[in-house]
Each structure stands twice: as C-alpha cells, then as structure tokens.
Design a protein that fits this description.
By secondary structure, the chain is mainly beta. The longest helix has 14 residues.
C-alpha cells in the first residue's frame, strides 16, 4: 500500500488530501483519492458549531468507478476535560450504492495529560438499507512519540458485510520537520463512500513543510480543548493574562499577574531564552523590547515555577506534547 497525504491545520480550519494505491493478496489493485476540510466557529460559551465536507473517488480493478460528495454539520459541547457532539451528514454516492445517504452520529471525547479518548455511534441509511457503526479511539503522546488505536464494529441490515475492525498507528518525530510512521490493521467497509474493508500494513515518512510546530492533536479536538481550558482555567497559566499594546515599532507585551515576585517570558522573539519581565505597576509586568508585528508563540513562568500558557493567547500543542500560547501582534499603520 502506498498512501501519500497532505494536511493543513489552522486556528479553526483543517484541510487534507490523500491518495492511495493498494494491492491485495490476490493481486487486484485499488486506486483512491479523497479530500476533506472542516471549519469550526469561534467559541460561544461551551457551544461551538462545525461545518465540514469531503469528496472522494476510486476504482477497483475490473469494476466500475465509485465516489461520494458529502457535507456535514456538527454541534459541539465542551465540558470539564471532555465533551460531546451531534452530527448530521448527507450528500451523493455513485457506484455500487447509488443514492442519497443520510448519516446521524453521536460522539463523546475526553482529554487527559497524555491520553485522549473518543467514542461514537453512527447510523447511515443508503439505497433502502441501513448500517450502524460503533467505534472508539485513543491517543497517547509522550515527548516525540505518538500512538493511536481505533476499534469498532459495524452491522448492516440483512446481516451481511458487517464485522469488527481495528487499526493501530505510531509516529516518532526525528525532528520538528521529520517523523517516521507505521500503521496496520483492518479498516471497515463503508458503502456510502464505496470503500471495501481490508487488512493493511503501512510504513512511511512524514514531512512538516511549515516552519512552525504542528499539533499532535487534531485541530477540531484541540480547539474544543482550548475552549474548556479557557472556561475552567485548566492547561492555562494560573490567572495570568497577556495584553498586546501598540507602539511605534511593534507591540508591547503586558502581563497581568496577581501575587507574583518574578515573572519570565520566552518565545520565538527571544530565541526561546527566558527573559525577566519588568514590574510596571500593581500586578502588571512588561516585556521591555517591542515585539515585531506577526504571529508569535510564547510561554511564561511565575516565581520559578513551570512554564505556562497565559490567558489572552490561543493554546497550541507542539509535536513534542508541550503547550505554547499563540498571540498576534498587529501591524502599525
């Protein structure tokens, strides 16, 4: 199996494309291509909405081409270190199962220090038939290593074509830009998308073309976790809040911290070297040098404690499992 892919993760957006060439034990070949994207609204309390879509087509040897075009909407609720979501999808399918499929899904997730878990149940109606998919997934990250596991079972009306499936994948980062990957297992059949279940083993190399670190957590889950962190105060640094004030040559970073005797900051603008902030008032600390306009990543430390992410920044997880805060310094006109 050869399966190249590209992915882009933004603050609220994720887009990916993937192709694959698969040879079965019988010698038959499959060529597939798919693309998908998702957009998550800004926080509205504990609730957020997600819009996504996918398109795909493929060709099994000695059979007609197949494909799909789907649109999906989800509503997310973020609770304490976890949440739930409800989704509805529909579109068009062509191939062996032509028609207008309708999917209804309910899921839940939870995130801990090194482990994230999720589960869902999805029911799909297509071409007069129906099938139900019950699945669960887990992700464990430590330093530059990530392990993913997924398992589930699917049952079709009429009792044919169902069964259990399971997949395991691992990723080891050799550097910020290069990672080794390995995966294997059995993926499930999906008539709505024309996918036939099969066993596989895959070894590959993943390249990060961006100059910034890419999160090991999917964009949508990361964004929801950040909502919970902001609501509950978890994962962010104490009650410290960062403010950006305009100056003639860039931005001035002002940190408001209660009951602190020393505050330090490090970021891409300090070459990730710890720099002490200057006290400029009761509970106010300032970074002395102007920060140039643009997107910057940083952490703070209070009284020699752990490095933290302040409020007023967007929490982002790096390839190595650590958290940084992302702040935008606007251009001066």
């Amino acid at each position: 199996m050869v399966s190249p892919s590209l992915q882009y993760d933004g603050a609220n957006t994720s887009v990916g494309v993937q192709g694959s060439w698969l040879i079965f034990e019988s010698g038959s070949e499959i060529v597939r291509f798919s693309a998908a994207g998702a957009w998550l609204t800004n926080p509205g309390g504990r609730w957020r909405a997600e819009l996504s879509g996918s398109i795909g087509f493929g060709h099994y040897e000695r059979s007609d081409p197949y494909g799909h075009l789907f649109a999906r909407t989800k509503v997310h609720y973020a609770g304490r270190r976890g949440g739930t979501w409800l989704g509805l999808a529909t579109g068009v399918s062509f191939g062996d199962y032509e028609g207008t499929p309708v999917e209804l899904a309910l899921g839940a997730w939870s995130a801990f220090d090194e482990v994230g878990v999720a589960g869902s149940i999805t029911t799909t109606a297509l071409a007069g038939g129906q099938y139900v998919d019950l699945s669960g997934a887990a992700r464990w990250t430590r330093n530059n290593f990530r392990l993913d596991a997924k398992a589930g079972a699917v049952g079709f009306s009429g009792g044919e074509g169902g069964g259990a499936y399971a997949e395991v994948s691992a990723m080891y980062h050799l550097s910020q830009r290069v990672a080794l990957t390995a995966s294997g297992g059995r993926y499930r059949s999906d008539p709505a998308r024309g996918i036939l279940g099969a066993r596989y083993v895959n070894v590959g190399l993943r390249l990060n073309l961006s100059s910034r670190s890419v999160s090991v957590v999917p964009t949508i889950i990361r964004a929801l976790a950040a909502v919970e962190a902001e609501l509950e105060g978890s994962d962010y640094g104490s009650t410290a809040r960062l403010e950006v004030q305009n100056s003639g040559s860039g931005g001035v970073l002002l940190l408001r911290v209660e009951r602190a005797s020393m505050v330090e900051i490090m970021g891409d603008f300090t070459d990730w070297v710890a720099v002490p902030l200057q006290r400029v008032g009761n509970g106010a600390w300032e970074f002395a040098a102007p920060v140039p306009p643009g997107v910057h990543r940083l952490n703070i430390r209070i009284d020699g404690g752990p490095w933290l992410v302040p409020f007023g920044t967007r929490l982002e997880e790096t390839d190595f499992g650590s958290a940084v805060g992302v702040v935008v310094v606007p251009s001066i006109r």
